[in-house]
Write a structure and sequence with these properties.
globular, three-stranded mixed sheet, 7 strands, two-stranded antiparallel sheet, 270 residues, mainly alpha, Cytochrome Bc1 Complex, Chain D, domain 2, 2 domains, 47% helix
Length: 270
């Protein structure tokens, strides 16, 4: 049997066992936290990080150029701590960008890859792993242990934050849902999963600093753009364009609210 498949099966079984015991004892959140701590040293996202590092350093795209000259906001080629300061304003594009949109900029300008090729299928599946997701895994892993420090100094950063705040509370769709429906109150839960309150600094820090993450139930590494896409899907909203202005603004709002939290990703989710 493939080792990664076997490992995923063990992780799923372990989580199911923990959750069933916790449900019986009425302590689901505590037991899920204990489960995550128990297997945190063996996060399969490490394989995505390694692939991402290889892709970062390897010449690619039509131009056969590596990503090592990509500026993520801390200078050309600097990856350490970069994710902890994203989203941010970039003078060369004259807009606020999150990690995924910035990687698209580098992949198109440095490597000559068409944006349409990158965004056509940006989320992985059982037999498909897009390069941008692995690059995301590598970059976020280089901010592990670094405090979140997202700035609102530039007017466009302030604007993005305010737009994100409005999007977060915007109610629409057949269920009249908003992000805030689930994430603006304390002590809410869906199924066995705690719902973090993003108006509470500690909750915002605990939640944001563990994404992107490896989803045990899916056996796949998932980016933050995927997380937003899936949340909007559950609200029955139209699927957002990958790395769109709306998703970047929403990310800015949540990232800024998580400031001073120590980044601990890639995380490990159920």
């Amino acid at each position: 049997m493939n080792i990664s498949i076997l490992k995923n099966a063990i992780l799923v079984f372990a989580m199911a066992s923990y959750c069933s015991i916790a449900f019986a004892e009425g302590s689901v959140p505590k037991e899920i936290a204990a489960y995550r701590e128990m297997i945190s040293d063996g996060n399969p996202a490490e394989f995505d990080e390694m692939r991402g590092e290889e892709l970062w350093k390897k010449p690619g795209g039509p131009n056969k150029v590596s990503m090592e000259k990509c500026d993520l906001g801390k200078g050309t080629g600097v990856v350490k701590g970069a994710y902890a300061e994203l989203p941010r304003y970039f003078p060369d594009t004259q807009r606020v960008q999150d990690l995924e949109s910035r990687l698209i900029t580098c992949m198109t300008t440095l490597q000559g890859t068409l944006e349409s090729d990158i965004t056509a299928k940006p989320f992985g599946g059982d037999n498909y792993k897009p390069e941008i997701e692995s690059l995301v895994a590598y970059v976020v892993g280089q901010s592990k242990g670094v405090k979140m420090n997202v700035s609102l100094k530039h007017p466009k950063e302030k604007e993005a934050y305010e737009i994100g705040k409005r999007v977060f509370t915007y109610r629409a769709g057949p269920y009249d849902f908003a992000c805030s429906t689930c994430h603006s109150q304390d002590n809410l839960r869906i199924r066995m999963q705690n719902l973090q309150n993003f108006s509470n600094a500690k909750d915002a820090q605990d939640s944001y600093t563990t994404w992107p993450a490896y989803r045990v139930s899916q056996g796949l590494f998932r980016s933050f753009q995927w997380r937003l896409n899936d949340c909007l899907r559950q609200q029955r909203f139209p699927e957002p364009k990958y790395a769109s202005e709306v998703t970047i603004a929403l990310t800015m709002y949540m990232a800024k609210n998580a400031n001073d939290g120590v980044y601990a990703g890639p995380g490990l989710k159920r």
